[in-house]
């Protein structure tokens, strides 16, 4: 396997009782992110008793300083709207200040609009609307969006990306519970089996797979899924997955959202 590298663990790792920690580097607006998130979700469904994870956000930027100058009036409450490729990542960090679940809801709603082309998610005004749709405290979100905390959180992600020399998004870095051991960086995306083998090798044991949840429980956990994700999680063809999903759509349990090249299924 190419694009694999050993790395040192960050100085302040998150505390966990699980033996493996994943740093998942991604650009939330990149289509390849969907493939990486599908892999991560299947790993969670089958093996999340072995690992914790955190997203590290990256965005291709010309200059964060230019963003700071342009957002000064907007984020302080003026009626000015702006667009910038860094704004979605800062918005996710602002949502994260309301908790990990709030950030997950926000990320899902943001990606839904981004990939279906229903909003310009690099727009400040659109990101505020998405906060409302994700059931966040919008007043708190606006305040956090313009705060030093959200900016620092995003800058911290960019710092970690540079320190680990992650130059391809998405990527995953695997760490075990021993801080002295080096982590394993896997740049780009590979087949699901590759990531399972990495977990087995790092744990030096055969993994115990959890039972696959029902469709209802799966959608309660993730709320929005693609046909391909469902097919991969249940190890069935995309045609079989679509038939099962249509049944649940007719039962009004889920709804279908689509454009010319993407179909999403969302819990009603």
TrEMBL record:
Its main location: cytoplasm. It holds the Pfam family Thioredoxin_5. Gene3D superfamilies: Glutaredoxin (3.40.30.10). Keywords: Cytoplasm. SUPFAM superfamilies: Thioredoxin-like (SSF52833). InterPro entries: Adapter_SpxH, Thioredoxin-like_sf. The keyword Cytoplasm applies. PANTHER family: CLPXP ADAPTER PROTEIN SPXH, GLUTATHIONE S-TRANSFERASE KAPPA. Belongs to the SpxH family. Adapter protein required for efficient degradation of Spx by ClpXP under non-stress conditions. Interaction with Spx stabilizes Spx and exposes the C-terminus of Spx for recognition and proteolysis by ClpXP. This is ClpXP adapter protein SpxH. It comes from Lysinibacillus composti.
